[in-house]
Amino acid sequence: MLSIVDFPQAYTKVHLPSKVALVVSRKPDHNYNLITVEWFMRTSIQPPQFAISIGHSRYSYDCLSDFGYFNLVLPSPELKPVLSLAGSNSGRDMDKFAASGVEFKPGKFQKIPILTEAIVNFECEIVSQVRSGDHTIFVGEVKYSWLNDEKEFFVYK
Ligand SMILES: Cc1cc2nc3c(=O)[nH]c(=O)nc-3n(C[C@H](O)[C@H](O)[C@H](O)COP(=O)(O)O)c2cc1C
Question: Does 27 reside within a domain?
Fold first, then answer.
């Protein structure tokens, strides 16, 4: 039967499984923050660009507003604990990057860390942004793409 329902009732039915990613941003003190994001998508073929939607209450919003670069990290199953940590704690309260124990190396573009256990890292420069309700969509242009072809992609269920 087709009927009008409230938004959460409809969304719950289509929400999972879902692709999730990590975004690495730079803090004003030049350390790094991690956030788990579900709301990301490719938005341009040439040049390649991705949009990430970040809540205004997130510390990552402050970091991305301060330093206009980020790494979009497509995780492997090994990074599942990092997705949980980064998605349930704020960088305002703890150093998630250090606490996660992630393996990393400096990026080639703006030195934002590349997570070496991920399947893919995209180093991005923010080229535009648009407010969407209580989030802002940051559009990042991919400058360097990293692939670890020994890894698989993790899907959130
Ligand atoms: C699976 C999952 C997906 C999430 N997706 C998003 C998202 O797309 N955008 C967002 O702003 N927050 C998202 N969150 C919430 C943030 O990850 C969470 O609020 C985090 O603690 C914010 O960290 P920060 O304050 O250090 O930026 C998600 C959380 C989880 C667990």
Answer: yes
Q: Would you say the CB of residue 113 lies under 6 angstroms from ligand 1?
A: no
Measuring from atom 5 of ligand 1, which residue has the nearest CA? 37
H helices of the chain, in order, are 7-14, 59-66, 80-88, 96-100
Q: Work out which ligand 1 atom sits closest to the CA atom of 52.
A: 8
pLDDT digits (tens, 9 = 90+) for 15-57: 999 999 999 999 999 999 999 999 999 999 999 999 999 999 9
Q: Which class for 110: exposed (0-12), middle (13-18), buried (19 or more C-beta within 10 A)?
A: middle
Q: What is the pTM of this model?
A: 0.98
Q: Is the pLDDT of residue 157 over 90?
A: no
Residue 67 inside a domain? The answer is: yes
Q: Grade residue 140 by pLDDT with cuts at 50, 70 and 90.
A: very high
117 domain residue, yes or no? yes
Amino acid occupying residue 20: V
Which among 54, 24, 25, 49 is positioned nearest to 39, based on CA atoms? 54
CATH number of the domain to which 33 belongs: 2.30.110.10
CA–chain centroid gap for 108, Å, is 18
